[in-house]
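Continued from yesterday's entry.
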Amino acid sequence: MGILALLEEFLLGTGFALITWREMLMLAVGCLLVYLGIVKKYEPLLLVPIGFSAVLVNLYPAISQDGGLLHYIYFGIEVGLFPPLIFLGIGAMTDFGPMLAKPQTVLLGAAAQVGIFLTVIGSRMLGFSFAEAASIGIIGGADGPTAVYLTSQLADHLLGPIAVAAYSYMALVPVIQPPIIRALTTKKERRIVMEDVKPVSKRARILFPIITVVLASLLVPASTPLVGMLMLGNLFRECGVVDRLFKTAQNELINIVTIFLGLAVGSKMGASEFLTVGTLMIIMLGVVAFAIGTAAGLLFGKIMCVASGGKINPMIGAAGVSAVPMAARVVQKVGQEENPENHLLMNAMGPNIAGVLGSAIAAGMLLFLAGGAL
């Protein structure tokens, strides 16, 4: 074989000969996610590995196929391992005190899940199967690990666009929520000052995760993997006798799993899987779900405001989505723009934390309804 023939054979085996405009477009999408994570600091812990993984899989598709590196990493999502471990870490980092101090705020977290179920109905009307519609609707909970978990169980082929939509909208909470808050509340309502959150006893903090996991598992058994790990992590935090486990769960463990989760999600962003009409519809339905969830929380907050004689600022209902703690910070920021003396952060954390539980339970309900309860 001559030199020219060898050279031709080599060139035909390079990525330059195989790459198409579709892969080029997905490379741009991957680089955009990395840019948003690094420069804009939008969910960098996940957007950076997701974006970089998307670059890898579009440069060398075999890396995500059977026998490839990302194929083995994806196994952690396929068997439902990574999202519950993320919830373990989230539980260790979460202080449920604000919610326990004002248990009525749980209702706001529940109300914000309306966006999930209305979007499921809308997606079904647009022709998606129930499993696909459930996976799209869960984006409205603004909880990335929950969206990844449910989608991996019900509609694995949609994991790429759904995960990107879920984490993108989580990152864009400060952009999406303020206009909705201002549109659905009056200036007078936004200026309402709430009482400070009172401390909660250690006994209540220890009993809460145990009671919660028992009730959630009995009512919605399919929610047990997520709620169980969330509550175990919180028990590590509150019991005071497993400091090493507590520190590992909220640091080393969640950091390691986050890397693997990001790489696994990005492995599903190959051009052939991602560039479809359905992807665009998913992106659009995701923002609708998130907006409806925010609006539902606000409207229920207005009802609670009236019922409390004007003591509850309805804006805290917007924090009922599961984007912790960003949604609560948005409420704090908008409140202080209207009244610099208004400090709503801790009051908003109650429904915000309840939203984490609400989205996990909603995922369990959708798994059951889809016949995918584990």
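--- second protein ---
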Amino acid sequence: MHNLLLISAIILAESVCADPAAGVHVGLELPPGPDNPRNSEGSFLPLKDGRILFAYSRYYGNSKSDHATADIAARYSSDQGRTWTTNDTILVKNEGGMNVMSAGLLRLQSGEIALFYLRKNSTSDCRPILRRSSDEGETWSDPTVCITDEVAYFVVNHDRVIQLKDGRLLFAASRHSFPNGRFNGRGLVMTYFSDDNGKTWRRGKSELSVRTPGGRFYSAQEPGLIQLKDGSILMWIRSNGGCQFTSRSTDRGETWSSPQPSWLASPESPASVKRLPSGDLLAVWNDRESQPTLKKKVNPGRRTPLVSAISRDEGKTWGNVRLIEDDPDGWFCYTALEPLDDGTVLLGYCAYKGLAHSRLVKIPIGWFYQQAKTTE
């Protein structure tokens, strides 16, 4: 499979975060601390007053487990992500039996702000919640449960809900179980959508699994979506099959094609994709296949290195592969992406093992388009 998936550019330079000359700025480090064992997966949103809001999972207590106690917290930047407020503002206090986590911010076509997050009550009840704000995040509406047709453990990653050009709100979810108390990553992937600005939600018709040609199941987790220029929708799915798998919908998310392996070679770790002002797609994910020198140093279980790539053909192929983080012992994942009007992109991602430490970075858009150095 790798000969079909391998992106050929081999990067010899150090990671961008170690190169101040690249114009990259690390704006905020969110390390764990006393009564705060983990800060992870977040989402950015530019506000109308010029500030930027970053919402993320702020754990409290003694455990950094996915099931430990957490709130949805926020930091703010008044200078396009170069500096951030030093104190947390709690947007949603823990209202779940376990926690609230995986925030996603979205500017609705109505002008309101939507805040999506997971309310985790137990290993058999984890569902996405929506709150709306009409005053730029100063106050929030009562919660709306987005999945009401079934009570189960659903995963909807941070920064994942999209609004289609026609106004439909859409997200992809993976449904999981815990046989014998252990997480079953195999999962089924499905979509939910709303045509009334998030008041009510309905499930799409497809349930997707990821399989080998011989029928063996791969894992299927943490899907994401982006609408393409022709109106169709691309879904990517985290898997243990050696790459991100992709599926497409041509009917506004009602039905989906069978997941197929993509060009994005990947360990079992999530990817993030956003559209740049140029119209091209930007992907950020873990790809050690394009880093053969690093690959020899990396424990297979690590989510490293962190790389980016550009697609000029709506996700069919990817190029301009760039190295963002290269620590072979790193744990770089759950990336939030936000292109800004000043010609930069904000990235927020987990930066160390255990998902405990988050890093916010500002990178010039032009850096992503530079050609990587290759071997002679």
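The longest helix spans residues 365-369. The chain has three helices and 25 strands. Will compare against the first tomorrow.
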